[in-house]
Amino acid sequence: MHIETPNTIVPKGDKEVFEFLTDLKNFEKLMPENIDKFQVINEDRFLFALKGMPEIVLQRKQQTPNSQIVLGAASEKLPFSLTANIISITDESSEVSLSFEGEFNAMMAMMIKKPITNFMGTLSENLGKI
């Protein structure tokens, strides 16, 4: 399953956006209002839960300075990744797109597509406000 957000203009340079996203505690600022739990486990992992949903642990998988950050599920039960691609527009602005890639059976994909699309949209929208 592949979900991509429209590009979001962020009023910060690519280096600043990259540094914001590599500091995992900043993801709490991007989360939806219905967040139930957020905890940084270590410099490469954080846990979050939305009301009525199970806890998810995300782990930094890879990063390319000032252009890309890839987070993935720490559990192999639900293999997926969340990628932020950062494109510099000017020294004071960047364009960020988020993409979700997951391997789910058809039934699971049908159940989670809408909540994940909404979640990704919220992250993207809040990223534009940093």
From TrEMBL:
Question: InterPro entries from the xrefs?
Answer: START-like_dom_sf
- Name of the protein in its database record: SRPBCC family protein
